[in-house]
Amino acid sequence: MIYNIKIVKKQTIESDAETAIAHAKQLGADQAAVSVSSGKGFSVKAQNGLIETVEHYEDQTFGITVFVKQSKGSASTNNLSKNSLLKTTEKALSLANLTAADEFNGLADSNLMATEPIDLDLHHPWKLDMSEAQTIALECEEAALQSDPKVDNSEGATVGTYENQSLYANSHGFVGATSTTGHSISCTAVASENGSMEMDYEYSAARKAQDLLDHEKIGYKAGIQACSHLGARKIKTQKAQVLYSPRQAKSLISHITDAISGTSLYRKASFLLDSIDQQICPDYLTIAEDPHLKCSFGSTYFDGEGVKTKPRTLVEQGILRGYLLSSYSARRLGLKTTGNAGGHHNLLIEPNLSGGLEEIIKTMKSGLLVTNLIGYGVNTVNGDYSRGANGFWVENGEIQYPVSEITIAGNLKNILQRILLIGNDRDKNSTIHSGSILIDDMMVAGQ
């Protein structure tokens, strides 16, 4: 049978939100905001030629935040009955009466609300038959196992889908609703040779099922990539060029977003403190934020406070032009919200090269191609950077052999300034769309 996802209707959610806000006002709240979400989904995992797990999940959440004389209280529940919503609202009020006032608390200004909804094409249910999902998972894993004789095991292949209805409303009279879907296929393969074992994975995620990479290609790529790491060597400690594959390049960009977030800035815990309108990268790097990109994971016409979102440029030709601020962090900094309550939206890293990973490799005399990062040794306060890595050593424009047990290190201020090339091979599986990124003169620690 087809697994039909039935979620709470928008009209019901909106009525619940209005009831809670009205109750909060009656109890003495100056302002109130409500978030309600309802969704369902399922996932299937195949391993060793069998269906290992089938998970169905259903989630509904109601959360309310109230402000009483600039004191804040929040409470939430998974029970969407009217009685539960009223009790949760009362709990938020009682918490607000116990907390200290903060002059920066409160809703975003009413004139900033997103009054005109935008259809961003985010809702594409996958009417997936359960037996079909199981077949996809089994065929994905089998493709990995058949990709090469050295692939003798797997950590499994997973197929997942979800649908969600969410709503944000506040006492300014703003109501914003969003219907979204998300689908994914992933596979992790294990390869063995001469007593050594290596693992790698491949995945695809999209709002539309038809935008997913073919499941057998996903399995095949996972297997081939696992085999490619067999026979990994250690290398001598040295300074060299480091090429981040698109999957790993996104992590570099995330360090920038962490550093320019309002929370990091007002806490003075950012290596990019007071860097607005300063050169933080070479002049060929531009980072655009596009919250209105159709059918993308980071798309929304309003942020977590109902503020209207709009496309803008965060880094323009290497110069930092914008922060990521909520109304609270903006007030702390004496600035205006940027519509980023809840984080960044779609970030588009502009390439300075018509080609991708293969073309960049051809430009390298010697260096490291990073395909996997391990651990998290990043200090956002001072920019110190140290990550475990594995990948491939490149000489004279060609991959020579796999390498492992490596640490790449430096300071993010210097690393960002040493970006040489940005490929056009953007990975669109998340909210950061980045191609391969080549960094010059990084410390590569091995033997």
How would you describe the overall organization of this protein?
The protein has helices at residues 10-26, 82-96, 130-146, 215-228, 246-259, 262-266, 327-333, 357-363, 412-417, and strands spanning 31-47, 50-68, 71-77, 151-170, 175-193, 196-206, 238-244, 287-289, 312-316, 319-320, 347-349, 366-378, 384-395, 398-411, 419-422, 432-433, 437-445. It is an alpha+beta fold. The protein is globular, with a radius of gyration of 24 Å. The strands form 3 sheets. The protein has a 6-stranded antiparallel sheet. Strand 12 (366-378) and strand 13 (384-395) form a beta hairpin. It has 2 domains: 10-228, 2-Layer Sandwich (PmbA/TldD fold), CATH 3.30.2290; 238-251 and 352-445, no CATH class.
